[in-house]
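Predict structure. Input: Signal transduction histidine-protein kinase ArlS, 485 residues.
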Amino acid sequence: MTQENVYRRFSVKWKWALGTTIGVFVVFLVFSLLMFRAFTQNALDSQHQEIDNALNAVSQRFTSVNTRNLTLDMIEPSLQPGNDHVHTILNDELIANVASKNLTLTIFDRQGVQLFTSHTNLVAMEHKSRFVGQRLVNVNGQQLLVGRVPVYAKNSNRIVGYVQIVDSLEQYHHMYIKLVKILVVLMLLGLMAIALWGYLLADWLLRPVEHIAKTIAEVEHDPKTTERVPDLLRNDELSDLGVILNEMVDRMQRYIDQQSRFVEDVSHELRTPVAIVKGHMDLLNRWGKDDPQILNDSIKASLDEMKRMETLVQEMLDLTRADQVEINFRHEATDVQDVVYQVYNNFSLIHPDFKFSLEDDIHKSTIISMYRNHLEQVLIILSDNAFKYSQERKEIHFAMSRTSREVQIAVQDFGEGISQEDANHVFDRFYRVDKARSREKGGNGLGLSIAQKLIEGYGGSISLESSLGHGSIFRITLPITNTDK
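Output follows.
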Protein backbone atom coordinates (compact mmCIF):
# COMPACT_ATOMS: atom_id res chain seq x y z
CA MET A 1 0.00 0.00 0.00
CA THR A 2 1.43 3.37 -1.01
CA GLN A 3 1.89 6.26 1.37
CA GLU A 4 -0.71 8.24 -0.59
CA ASN A 5 -3.34 5.55 0.03
CA VAL A 6 -2.52 5.52 3.74
CA TYR A 7 -3.15 9.26 3.91
CA ARG A 8 -6.39 8.88 1.98
CA ARG A 9 -7.69 6.35 4.49
CA PHE A 10 -7.28 8.91 7.29
CA SER A 11 -10.64 10.54 6.68
CA VAL A 12 -11.67 14.09 7.45
CA LYS A 13 -13.94 12.77 10.19
CA TRP A 14 -10.98 11.26 12.04
CA LYS A 15 -8.84 14.32 11.42
CA TRP A 16 -11.61 16.53 12.76
CA ALA A 17 -12.18 14.27 15.77
CA LEU A 18 -8.46 14.08 16.51
CA GLY A 19 -7.97 17.81 16.15
CA THR A 20 -10.99 18.57 18.33
CA THR A 21 -9.85 16.05 20.94
CA ILE A 22 -6.33 17.46 21.09
CA GLY A 23 -7.52 21.06 21.20
CA VAL A 24 -10.14 20.55 23.91
CA PHE A 25 -7.85 18.24 25.89
CA VAL A 26 -5.04 20.81 25.88
CA VAL A 27 -7.44 23.44 27.20
CA PHE A 28 -8.73 21.00 29.81
CA LEU A 29 -5.18 20.04 30.77
CA VAL A 30 -4.06 23.65 31.15
CA PHE A 31 -7.13 24.46 33.24
CA SER A 32 -6.58 21.38 35.43
CA LEU A 33 -2.90 22.22 35.94
CA LEU A 34 -3.79 25.77 36.89
CA MET A 35 -6.35 24.47 39.39
CA PHE A 36 -3.81 21.96 40.70
CA ARG A 37 -1.26 24.73 41.07
CA ALA A 38 -3.78 26.90 42.90
CA PHE A 39 -4.75 24.09 45.33
CA THR A 40 -1.15 23.13 46.14
CA GLN A 41 -0.08 26.75 46.51
CA ASN A 42 -3.02 27.40 48.82
CA ALA A 43 -2.06 24.37 50.91
CA LEU A 44 1.56 25.55 51.08
CA ASP A 45 0.42 29.04 52.04
CA SER A 46 -1.60 27.47 54.87
CA GLN A 47 1.57 25.76 56.09
CA HIS A 48 3.42 29.07 55.96
CA GLN A 49 0.66 30.76 57.94
CA GLU A 50 0.60 27.97 60.54
CA ILE A 51 4.35 28.24 61.09
CA ASP A 52 4.16 32.02 61.24
CA ASN A 53 1.48 31.89 63.93
CA ALA A 54 3.44 29.33 65.93
CA LEU A 55 6.67 31.35 65.71
CA ASN A 56 4.93 34.48 66.95
CA ALA A 57 3.31 32.57 69.82
CA VAL A 58 6.60 31.03 70.95
CA SER A 59 8.68 34.19 70.59
CA GLN A 60 6.17 36.14 72.70
CA ARG A 61 6.87 33.78 75.65
CA PHE A 62 10.38 35.24 75.84
CA THR A 63 9.52 38.93 75.75
CA SER A 64 10.43 39.29 79.45
CA VAL A 65 14.00 38.09 78.93
CA ASN A 66 16.50 40.81 79.80
CA THR A 67 19.96 39.41 79.13
CA ARG A 68 22.63 39.35 76.44
CA ASN A 69 22.08 35.71 75.47
CA LEU A 70 19.46 33.01 75.97
CA THR A 71 20.40 30.09 78.17
CA LEU A 72 18.72 26.80 78.94
CA ASP A 73 17.97 27.97 82.47
CA MET A 74 16.00 30.90 81.12
CA ILE A 75 13.76 28.81 78.86
CA GLU A 76 13.29 25.73 81.09
CA PRO A 77 10.42 27.24 83.16
CA SER A 78 8.45 27.72 79.98
CA LEU A 79 9.16 24.16 78.86
CA GLN A 80 8.23 22.30 82.06
CA PRO A 81 4.78 20.77 82.59
CA GLY A 82 2.42 23.48 83.73
CA ASN A 83 0.67 24.00 87.06
CA ASP A 84 -1.92 26.37 88.33
CA HIS A 85 0.52 29.29 88.53
CA VAL A 86 2.83 28.84 85.54
CA HIS A 87 1.66 29.10 81.89
CA THR A 88 4.09 26.93 79.92
CA ILE A 89 4.72 26.83 76.18
CA LEU A 90 3.82 23.18 75.85
CA ASN A 91 0.49 23.69 77.57
CA ASP A 92 -0.48 26.28 74.99
CA GLU A 93 -2.90 24.76 72.44
CA LEU A 94 -1.13 26.42 69.53
CA ILE A 95 2.28 25.32 70.76
CA ALA A 96 0.95 21.82 71.41
CA ASN A 97 0.29 21.63 67.69
CA VAL A 98 3.88 22.65 67.12
CA ALA A 99 5.01 19.72 69.21
CA SER A 100 3.21 17.29 66.93
CA LYS A 101 5.18 14.82 64.87
CA ASN A 102 5.05 16.96 61.71
CA LEU A 103 6.59 20.07 63.29
CA THR A 104 9.88 20.45 65.13
CA LEU A 105 10.36 23.37 67.55
CA THR A 106 13.98 24.38 68.18
CA ILE A 107 15.38 27.24 70.28
CA PHE A 108 18.89 28.62 69.69
CA ASP A 109 20.96 31.13 71.59
CA ARG A 110 22.51 34.16 69.96
CA GLN A 111 25.49 32.16 68.62
CA GLY A 112 23.23 29.50 67.08
CA VAL A 113 23.81 26.88 69.75
CA GLN A 114 20.80 24.63 70.12
CA LEU A 115 19.16 24.95 73.53
CA PHE A 116 15.98 22.96 72.97
CA THR A 117 14.23 20.87 70.31
CA SER A 118 10.92 19.02 70.41
CA HIS A 119 12.12 16.39 67.90
CA THR A 120 15.32 15.55 66.16
CA ASN A 121 16.33 18.81 64.54
CA LEU A 122 17.38 18.38 60.92
CA VAL A 123 18.21 22.03 60.26
CA ALA A 124 21.14 23.34 62.29
CA MET A 125 21.75 27.02 62.98
CA GLU A 126 24.79 27.47 60.80
CA HIS A 127 26.43 30.85 60.52
CA LYS A 128 25.94 31.08 56.75
CA SER A 129 22.32 30.04 56.93
CA ARG A 130 21.35 32.34 59.78
CA PHE A 131 18.32 33.70 57.94
CA VAL A 132 15.17 35.18 59.43
CA GLY A 133 11.78 34.37 57.92
CA GLN A 134 10.62 31.25 56.07
CA ARG A 135 12.15 29.23 53.29
CA LEU A 136 12.11 25.77 51.73
CA VAL A 137 15.30 23.77 52.26
CA ASN A 138 16.37 20.35 51.04
CA VAL A 139 17.93 18.06 53.63
CA ASN A 140 19.05 14.59 52.54
CA GLY A 141 16.61 14.68 49.63
CA GLN A 142 13.73 15.71 51.86
CA GLN A 143 12.03 19.06 51.32
CA LEU A 144 11.39 20.96 54.54
CA LEU A 145 9.74 24.27 55.34
CA VAL A 146 11.83 26.23 57.85
CA GLY A 147 10.58 29.27 59.75
CA ARG A 148 12.85 31.32 62.05
CA VAL A 149 12.40 34.50 64.11
CA PRO A 150 14.81 36.27 66.50
CA VAL A 151 14.19 36.76 70.24
CA TYR A 152 14.91 40.30 71.50
CA ALA A 153 15.99 41.42 74.98
CA LYS A 154 13.33 43.33 76.88
CA ASN A 155 15.20 46.61 77.37
CA SER A 156 18.01 46.71 74.84
CA ASN A 157 16.07 45.41 71.84
CA ARG A 158 19.09 43.21 71.15
CA ILE A 159 18.89 39.71 69.62
CA VAL A 160 19.48 37.18 72.37
CA GLY A 161 18.38 34.01 70.54
CA TYR A 162 16.26 32.41 67.82
CA VAL A 163 13.10 30.34 67.65
CA GLN A 164 12.90 27.89 64.73
CA ILE A 165 10.08 25.66 63.54
CA VAL A 166 10.65 23.01 60.86
CA ASP A 167 7.68 21.50 59.02
CA SER A 168 8.33 18.13 57.38
CA LEU A 169 5.42 18.87 54.99
CA GLU A 170 4.15 15.30 55.32
CA GLN A 171 0.51 16.41 55.10
CA TYR A 172 1.32 18.68 52.19
CA HIS A 173 3.17 15.93 50.28
CA HIS A 174 0.42 13.43 51.06
CA MET A 175 -2.18 15.85 49.74
CA TYR A 176 0.06 16.60 46.73
CA ILE A 177 0.34 12.91 45.78
CA LYS A 178 -3.39 12.43 46.28
CA LEU A 179 -4.14 15.41 44.02
CA VAL A 180 -1.75 14.07 41.37
CA LYS A 181 -3.55 10.72 41.36
CA ILE A 182 -6.92 12.45 41.12
CA LEU A 183 -5.59 14.66 38.31
CA VAL A 184 -4.28 11.65 36.35
CA VAL A 185 -7.62 9.85 36.69
CA LEU A 186 -9.47 12.98 35.63
CA MET A 187 -7.12 13.41 32.67
CA LEU A 188 -7.75 9.85 31.48
CA LEU A 189 -11.51 10.09 31.95
CA GLY A 190 -11.51 13.53 30.37
CA LEU A 191 -9.47 12.31 27.41
CA MET A 192 -11.88 9.46 26.76
CA ALA A 193 -14.92 11.71 27.14
CA ILE A 194 -13.43 14.40 24.91
CA ALA A 195 -12.41 11.83 22.27
CA LEU A 196 -15.92 10.37 22.23
CA TRP A 197 -17.47 13.83 22.09
CA GLY A 198 -15.07 14.89 19.31
CA TYR A 199 -15.89 11.83 17.20
CA LEU A 200 -19.65 12.21 17.67
CA LEU A 201 -19.43 15.93 16.88
CA ALA A 202 -17.35 15.26 13.76
CA ASP A 203 -19.77 12.53 12.67
CA TRP A 204 -22.75 14.87 13.12
CA LEU A 205 -21.10 17.83 11.41
CA LEU A 206 -19.70 15.84 8.48
CA ARG A 207 -22.73 13.65 7.86
CA PRO A 208 -24.03 16.10 5.21
CA VAL A 209 -20.62 15.97 3.53
CA GLU A 210 -20.93 12.19 3.32
CA HIS A 211 -24.37 12.53 1.70
CA ILE A 212 -22.97 15.08 -0.74
CA ALA A 213 -19.93 12.93 -1.56
CA LYS A 214 -22.17 9.89 -2.08
CA THR A 215 -24.41 11.85 -4.44
CA ILE A 216 -21.44 13.19 -6.41
CA ALA A 217 -20.00 9.68 -6.74
CA GLU A 218 -23.36 8.35 -7.92
CA VAL A 219 -23.71 11.15 -10.48
CA GLU A 220 -20.17 10.48 -11.70
CA HIS A 221 -21.02 6.81 -12.13
CA ASP A 222 -24.41 7.43 -13.76
CA PRO A 223 -25.10 11.01 -14.96
CA LYS A 224 -28.79 10.16 -15.39
CA THR A 225 -29.28 8.91 -11.85
CA THR A 226 -32.15 10.21 -9.74
CA GLU A 227 -29.96 10.12 -6.61
CA ARG A 228 -30.00 13.48 -4.81
CA VAL A 229 -28.74 14.91 -1.54
CA PRO A 230 -31.56 14.37 1.00
CA ASP A 231 -33.06 17.30 2.87
CA LEU A 232 -30.52 17.82 5.66
CA LEU A 233 -32.83 19.94 7.86
CA ARG A 234 -29.81 21.79 9.25
CA ASN A 235 -30.39 25.37 8.06
CA ASP A 236 -26.66 25.98 7.65
CA GLU A 237 -24.04 26.30 4.92
CA LEU A 238 -23.89 22.54 4.31
CA SER A 239 -27.65 22.42 3.78
CA ASP A 240 -27.30 25.27 1.29
CA LEU A 241 -24.51 23.35 -0.42
CA GLY A 242 -26.75 20.29 -0.71
CA VAL A 243 -29.54 22.36 -2.27
CA ILE A 244 -27.11 24.00 -4.71
CA LEU A 245 -25.66 20.61 -5.66
CA ASN A 246 -29.13 19.20 -6.33
CA GLU A 247 -29.99 22.19 -8.50
CA MET A 248 -26.70 21.85 -10.36
CA VAL A 249 -27.25 18.12 -10.98
CA ASP A 250 -30.82 18.80 -12.14
CA ARG A 251 -29.56 21.46 -14.54
CA MET A 252 -26.79 19.17 -15.79
CA GLN A 253 -29.30 16.40 -16.44
CA ARG A 254 -31.52 18.83 -18.30
CA TYR A 255 -28.58 19.68 -20.53
CA ILE A 256 -27.84 15.99 -21.05
CA ASP A 257 -31.49 15.36 -21.90
CA GLN A 258 -31.48 18.34 -24.26
CA GLN A 259 -28.39 17.03 -25.97
CA SER A 260 -29.91 13.57 -26.30
CA ARG A 261 -33.17 14.99 -27.64
CA PHE A 262 -31.24 17.20 -30.03
CA VAL A 263 -29.38 14.21 -31.48
CA GLU A 264 -32.58 12.16 -31.66
CA ASP A 265 -34.54 15.00 -33.25
CA VAL A 266 -31.80 15.73 -35.77
CA SER A 267 -31.55 12.10 -36.79
CA HIS A 268 -35.34 11.85 -37.03
CA GLU A 269 -36.08 15.10 -38.82
CA LEU A 270 -33.15 14.91 -41.23
CA ARG A 271 -34.01 11.40 -42.31
CA THR A 272 -36.70 12.55 -44.77
CA PRO A 273 -34.77 15.38 -46.52
CA VAL A 274 -31.64 13.22 -46.68
CA ALA A 275 -33.69 10.40 -48.23
CA ILE A 276 -35.15 12.85 -50.76
CA VAL A 277 -31.73 14.20 -51.73
CA LYS A 278 -30.33 10.68 -51.92
CA GLY A 279 -33.24 9.59 -54.12
CA HIS A 280 -32.65 12.44 -56.57
CA MET A 281 -28.92 11.75 -56.62
CA ASP A 282 -29.55 8.06 -57.31
CA LEU A 283 -31.96 9.03 -60.09
CA LEU A 284 -29.38 11.30 -61.68
CA ASN A 285 -26.68 8.72 -61.26
CA ARG A 286 -28.70 6.04 -63.05
CA TRP A 287 -30.08 7.87 -66.07
CA GLY A 288 -31.60 11.24 -65.16
CA LYS A 289 -28.45 13.28 -65.76
CA ASP A 290 -28.97 12.86 -69.50
CA ASP A 291 -32.44 14.45 -69.32
CA PRO A 292 -32.15 18.24 -68.78
CA GLN A 293 -35.66 18.50 -67.31
CA ILE A 294 -35.09 15.73 -64.77
CA LEU A 295 -31.67 17.17 -63.99
CA ASN A 296 -33.10 20.62 -63.29
CA ASP A 297 -35.99 19.26 -61.23
CA SER A 298 -33.70 17.03 -59.15
CA ILE A 299 -31.21 19.82 -58.50
CA LYS A 300 -34.01 22.23 -57.50
CA ALA A 301 -35.64 19.67 -55.21
CA SER A 302 -32.29 18.80 -53.62
CA LEU A 303 -31.46 22.47 -53.04
CA ASP A 304 -34.88 23.04 -51.47
CA GLU A 305 -34.39 20.10 -49.11
CA MET A 306 -30.87 21.24 -48.23
CA LYS A 307 -32.17 24.72 -47.48
CA ARG A 308 -34.85 23.19 -45.28
CA MET A 309 -32.20 21.11 -43.52
CA GLU A 310 -30.15 24.26 -42.93
CA THR A 311 -33.18 26.02 -41.47
CA LEU A 312 -34.04 22.98 -39.38
CA VAL A 313 -30.54 22.69 -37.90
CA GLN A 314 -30.48 26.42 -37.11
CA GLU A 315 -33.87 26.23 -35.40
CA MET A 316 -32.77 23.23 -33.36
CA LEU A 317 -29.65 25.08 -32.28
CA ASP A 318 -31.82 28.04 -31.31
CA LEU A 319 -34.04 25.72 -29.31
CA THR A 320 -31.04 24.27 -27.49
CA ARG A 321 -29.65 27.73 -26.71
CA ALA A 322 -33.06 28.85 -25.48
CA ASP A 323 -32.70 26.49 -22.52
CA GLN A 324 -29.54 28.32 -21.40
CA VAL A 325 -30.68 31.95 -21.33
CA GLU A 326 -30.72 32.05 -17.52
CA ILE A 327 -26.96 31.45 -17.58
CA ASN A 328 -25.79 33.43 -20.60
CA PHE A 329 -28.16 36.43 -20.55
CA ARG A 330 -29.18 36.92 -16.93
CA HIS A 331 -27.99 40.56 -16.81
CA GLU A 332 -29.56 41.77 -20.06
CA ALA A 333 -32.20 44.55 -20.11
CA THR A 334 -34.56 45.55 -22.93
CA ASP A 335 -37.15 48.26 -23.53
CA VAL A 336 -40.34 46.43 -24.53
CA GLN A 337 -41.83 49.28 -26.55
CA ASP A 338 -38.74 49.68 -28.74
CA VAL A 339 -38.75 46.03 -29.78
CA VAL A 340 -42.52 45.77 -30.36
CA TYR A 341 -42.54 48.92 -32.48
CA GLN A 342 -39.53 47.67 -34.46
CA VAL A 343 -41.17 44.32 -35.31
CA TYR A 344 -44.46 46.06 -36.06
CA ASN A 345 -42.77 48.48 -38.50
CA ASN A 346 -40.68 45.75 -40.15
CA PHE A 347 -43.67 43.50 -40.87
CA SER A 348 -45.70 46.46 -42.07
CA LEU A 349 -42.91 47.19 -44.53
CA ILE A 350 -42.34 43.68 -45.91
CA HIS A 351 -46.05 42.78 -46.08
CA PRO A 352 -47.74 45.86 -47.49
CA ASP A 353 -50.79 43.81 -48.50
CA PHE A 354 -51.57 43.14 -44.80
CA LYS A 355 -53.26 45.50 -42.39
CA PHE A 356 -51.25 45.88 -39.18
CA SER A 357 -52.47 47.68 -36.06
CA LEU A 358 -50.79 48.41 -32.71
CA GLU A 359 -52.53 49.17 -29.42
CA ASP A 360 -50.12 50.67 -26.86
CA ASP A 361 -51.49 51.01 -23.33
CA ILE A 362 -48.07 51.37 -21.70
CA HIS A 363 -47.35 54.99 -22.67
CA LYS A 364 -43.89 54.98 -21.08
CA SER A 365 -40.61 53.11 -21.19
CA THR A 366 -40.82 49.66 -19.60
CA ILE A 367 -37.65 47.65 -18.97
CA ILE A 368 -37.59 43.85 -18.74
CA SER A 369 -34.70 41.52 -17.97
CA MET A 370 -34.38 39.91 -21.40
CA TYR A 371 -31.91 39.94 -24.27
CA ARG A 372 -33.27 42.26 -26.98
CA ASN A 373 -32.64 39.84 -29.86
CA HIS A 374 -34.53 37.09 -28.04
CA LEU A 375 -37.65 39.22 -27.57
CA GLU A 376 -37.43 40.24 -31.20
CA GLN A 377 -37.03 36.60 -32.24
CA VAL A 378 -40.16 35.58 -30.28
CA LEU A 379 -42.24 38.38 -31.81
CA ILE A 380 -41.00 37.49 -35.30
CA ILE A 381 -41.97 33.83 -34.74
CA LEU A 382 -45.47 34.81 -33.60
CA SER A 383 -45.90 37.42 -36.36
CA ASP A 384 -44.64 35.06 -39.04
CA ASN A 385 -47.00 32.38 -37.75
CA ALA A 386 -49.89 34.86 -37.93
CA PHE A 387 -48.91 35.84 -41.46
CA LYS A 388 -48.76 32.23 -42.71
CA TYR A 389 -52.24 31.35 -41.47
CA SER A 390 -54.06 34.59 -42.39
CA GLN A 391 -54.33 34.36 -46.14
CA GLU A 392 -58.04 35.23 -46.36
CA ARG A 393 -58.43 38.08 -43.85
CA LYS A 394 -55.05 39.75 -44.04
CA GLU A 395 -55.00 41.53 -40.73
CA ILE A 396 -52.63 41.26 -37.74
CA HIS A 397 -53.06 43.13 -34.46
CA PHE A 398 -50.37 43.91 -31.83
CA ALA A 399 -51.21 45.02 -28.27
CA MET A 400 -49.19 46.05 -25.21
CA SER A 401 -50.31 46.62 -21.60
CA ARG A 402 -48.82 46.41 -18.15
CA THR A 403 -49.45 46.08 -14.43
CA SER A 404 -47.20 47.14 -11.57
CA ARG A 405 -45.10 43.98 -11.96
CA GLU A 406 -45.68 42.55 -15.44
CA VAL A 407 -45.94 43.58 -19.06
CA GLN A 408 -48.26 41.81 -21.51
CA ILE A 409 -47.78 41.55 -25.28
CA ALA A 410 -50.40 40.06 -27.59
CA VAL A 411 -50.21 39.08 -31.28
CA GLN A 412 -53.59 38.39 -32.88
CA ASP A 413 -54.52 37.09 -36.31
CA PHE A 414 -57.90 36.50 -37.92
CA GLY A 415 -57.01 33.43 -39.93
CA GLU A 416 -57.84 29.75 -39.82
CA GLY A 417 -57.62 29.23 -36.08
CA ILE A 418 -56.63 26.04 -34.24
CA SER A 419 -58.75 23.36 -32.63
CA GLN A 420 -58.54 22.86 -28.87
CA GLU A 421 -56.86 19.49 -29.34
CA ASP A 422 -54.15 21.01 -31.52
CA ALA A 423 -53.85 24.07 -29.26
CA ASN A 424 -52.73 21.78 -26.43
CA HIS A 425 -49.72 20.66 -28.50
CA VAL A 426 -48.66 23.70 -30.52
CA PHE A 427 -45.67 24.31 -28.23
CA ASP A 428 -44.42 20.71 -28.57
CA ARG A 429 -41.28 20.15 -30.59
CA PHE A 430 -41.90 19.33 -34.29
CA TYR A 431 -45.67 19.50 -33.84
CA ARG A 432 -47.54 20.65 -36.93
CA VAL A 433 -51.29 21.28 -37.05
CA ASP A 434 -51.37 20.36 -40.74
CA LYS A 435 -48.16 18.61 -41.67
CA ALA A 436 -48.65 18.89 -45.43
CA ARG A 437 -49.54 22.58 -45.36
CA SER A 438 -46.83 23.33 -42.80
CA ARG A 439 -44.20 21.78 -45.02
CA GLU A 440 -45.47 23.80 -47.96
CA LYS A 441 -45.21 27.00 -45.86
CA GLY A 442 -41.71 26.18 -44.71
CA GLY A 443 -42.51 25.21 -41.13
CA ASN A 444 -40.58 22.63 -39.13
CA GLY A 445 -42.71 22.72 -36.00
CA LEU A 446 -39.98 24.31 -33.88
CA GLY A 447 -40.79 28.02 -33.91
CA LEU A 448 -43.35 28.03 -31.11
CA SER A 449 -41.19 25.66 -29.03
CA ILE A 450 -38.31 28.12 -29.34
CA ALA A 451 -40.61 31.02 -28.38
CA GLN A 452 -41.89 29.19 -25.30
CA LYS A 453 -38.39 28.20 -24.16
CA LEU A 454 -37.11 31.76 -24.52
CA ILE A 455 -40.03 33.34 -22.66
CA GLU A 456 -39.97 30.80 -19.82
CA GLY A 457 -36.18 31.13 -19.60
CA TYR A 458 -36.67 34.76 -18.57
CA GLY A 459 -39.35 33.98 -15.99
CA GLY A 460 -42.32 34.73 -18.25
CA SER A 461 -45.17 32.77 -19.78
CA ILE A 462 -46.80 32.37 -23.19
CA SER A 463 -50.33 31.14 -23.90
CA LEU A 464 -52.68 30.63 -26.83
CA GLU A 465 -56.35 31.42 -27.31
CA SER A 466 -57.77 30.15 -30.60
CA SER A 467 -61.04 29.41 -32.32
CA LEU A 468 -61.45 27.54 -35.59
CA GLY A 469 -62.34 29.90 -38.39
CA HIS A 470 -61.86 33.04 -36.28
CA GLY A 471 -58.14 33.24 -35.62
CA SER A 472 -55.70 33.02 -32.72
CA ILE A 473 -54.19 35.22 -29.98
CA PHE A 474 -50.77 34.54 -28.52
CA ARG A 475 -50.24 36.32 -25.17
CA ILE A 476 -46.80 36.90 -23.62
CA THR A 477 -46.29 37.92 -19.98
CA LEU A 478 -42.87 39.05 -18.71
CA PRO A 479 -41.76 40.47 -15.32
CA ILE A 480 -40.81 44.15 -15.23
CA THR A 481 -37.33 45.05 -14.05
CA ASN A 482 -37.62 48.84 -13.94
CA THR A 483 -40.33 51.24 -15.02
CA ASP A 484 -38.00 54.14 -15.75
CA LYS A 485 -35.14 54.26 -18.16
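Confidence is low (pLDDT under 50) at residues 81-87, 435-439.
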